[in-house]
Write a structure and sequence with these properties.
The protein is mainly beta. The chain contains one helix and seven strands. Strands 1-3-4-6-5 form a five-stranded mixed β-barrel. A hairpin with a 5-residue loop joins strand 2 (21-24) and strand 3 (30-43).
């Protein structure tokens, strides 16, 4: 196994907050942006159960983006695997922004209505 791929590896199971946002680039290559919510339950110091939701930005390219566009929708339960990527950009107001995203390698569709499938 290639250990360099293991140095920056992320796996998340969660639900899409909305349908993937699809962009077609100049040469026809597609990009899909989506947000995935993961939930964690725990007991706080007072003994009460608390459910905490974390939102994760995810980006897919090429064939994976095309398949995300075709099969994923708001609420889809998925297992995503990829790597963390950090980038900086300047927004339209000239403010410097930082973003951390999961650069997608693969998705496993977990919706119970459909047979689990990897793409």
């Amino acid at each position: 196994m290639n250990t360099s791929m293991m140095k920056n590896k992320v796996q998340l199971i969660g639900n899409l907050g909305q349908a993937p946002e699809i962009k077609t680039m100049e040469k026809g290559n597609k990009m899909a942006r989506m947000s995935i919510a993961t939930n964690e339950s725990y007991k706080n110091a007072q003994g009460e159960y608390v459910q905490e939701t974390q939102w994760h930005k995810v980006v897919a390219w090429g064939k994976t983006a095309e398949l995300a566009e075709k099969y994923l929708q708001k609420g889809s339960e998925v297992l995503v695997e990829g790597k963390l990527q950090h980038r900086e950009y300047v927004d339209k107001d000239g403010v410097k922004r930082n973003v951390t995203e999961v650069q997608l390698h693969s998705i496993l569709l977990l919706d119970k209505k459909k047979e689990a499938s990897i793409f």
